[in-house]
Design goal:
The protein contains 7 helices and 14 strands. Helix 5 (196-209) packs parallel to helix 6 (230-236). By secondary structure, the protein is an alpha/beta fold.
C-alpha cells in the first residue's frame, strides 16, 4: 500500500490491446474498492488494484472510472460485486421471478433502479438485490456487465467447504461474515468496525445468537488480516483453529507472489460466479 492506501500490481507484459481476451472483476466494498484483470487465454492474473480505508467504496469507484484507463478497456466480460443493504436471500421454492417487487418490499431502503437476481444453485436460494443509487448510475458504463451480490465471491469459495464453516472476509474497516452448516447458508452479514472492541462485540454477537460451537467450527479468513495482528489474536481467544482462505483455482497469480494469498481470494473468486 502507498500513502494513499492504494496499490496497483500489474504484469509488466500486460498489453491493453489484449483486453478482449480478459475478464474484469470489480469489488465495491463498504470502505474499499478493488479490481482484477484476468487473461482468460493464458489463465493469468494480469493486474490487481486495491484501495482500503475509503470513505465510501462507491465514491472511490466513481473517481477511478474517471482516472483509471484500465477500467474502460473493451473487456470480454465484466463482473461487478457491490456492497448494498438492499439484499435478501429467497429459497428456490419461494422465489417468484414474475414478482420481484413482492420480494423487494423486505429491502431496508426503497430500491432505486433495476432489481437484480443471482442464482446460488449450490446452496438452493436466489439472492435478490438492488444497488445504491450512486453505483447504479456508474454502472451505465458496464451495461453488458454481470452484476453480482456483494457476497458472491465468498459463496463461490464456500461451495468447496464441508461441515460447519464460518468465513470472515476483512477490509481495513469492515468485515463480511458467512456462516454455513451442512452446505446450507445460515447467516450472512457485513459489519463496519472502527476498532478492536467493535470487532470483538460483533464476533461475540454472532457466536451467541447463532450458537456457534467455536471448537467444532472451521474458521476461514480472507482479506486484509494477518497472523498475529489484533483481530487475528482476538479470534484465537474463541476459536481453536484459524485458517487463511486462498483461491482454489489454477490461476497463474505470479503478479501477487509478494502478497498474502488470502488478500484477494474473494475478489478473484468472482470469476467463478455465474
Amino acid at each position: 500500500m502507498n500513502n494513499n492506501n492504494s496499490i496497483l500490481l500489474i504484469d509488466p507484459t500486460f498489453d491493453p490491446a489484449t483486453a478482449s481476451a480478459c475478464n474484469l472483476l470489480i469489488k465495491v466494498g463498504l470502505d474499499s474498492f478493488s479490481y482484477a484483470i484476468l487473461n482468460k487465454e493464458t489463465n493469468q492474473v494480469s493486474a490487481v488494484f486495491d484501495e482500503q480505508e475509503c470513505e465510501n467504496g462507491a465514491q472511490k469507484f466513481a473517481e477511478r472510472l474517471k482516472t483509471d484507463p484500465y477500467l474502460t478497456l473493451p473487456y470480454q466480460l465484466v463482473k461487478v460485486a457491490v456492497h448494498t443493504q438492499n439484499t435478501i436471500a429467497v429459497p428456490n421454492d419461494l422465489f417468484n421471478e414474475n414478482s420481484l417487487t413482492a420480494h423487494s418490499q423486505y429491502f431496508i431502503e426503497e430500491p432505486v433502479g433495476e432489481i437484480y437476481t443471482q442464482t446460488q444453485s449450490h446452496f438452493g436460494f436466489i439472492t435478490i438485490f438492488a444497488l445504491p443509487k450512486t453505483t447504479n448510475e456508474l454502472l451505465t458504463s458496464f451495461t453488458e456487465g454481470r452484476k453480482c451480490s456483494h457476497q458472491a465471491g465468498l459463496l463461490a469459495l464456500a461451495e468447496k467447504l464441508n461441515g460447519t464453516v464460518l468465513i470472515l472476509d476483512f477490509s481495513v474497516g469492515s468485515f463480511n461474515a458467512l456462516y454455513i452448516q451442512n452446505q446450507q447458508v445460515i447467516f450472512q452479514q457485513c459489519y463496519e468496525i472502527a476498532n478492536l472492541d467493535e470487532f470483538n462485540y460483533y464476533l461475540l454477537l454472532m457466536i451467541n445468537q447463532l450458537s456457534i460451537d467455536t471448537k467444532e467450527t472451521n474458521l476461514q479468513l480472507a482479506g486484509i488480516i494477518h497472523e498475529g495482528d489484533d483481530r487475528y489474536n482476538c479470534l484465537l481467544k474463541y476459536f481453536s483453529e484459524v485458517a487463511f482462505m486462498a483461491t482454489t483455482t489454477d490461476l497463474d497469480q505470479q503478479v501477487l507472489e509478494d502478497m498474502p494469498a488470502h488478500y484477494y481470494s474473494s475478489l478473484l473468486a468472482l470469476d467463478q460466479c455465474v
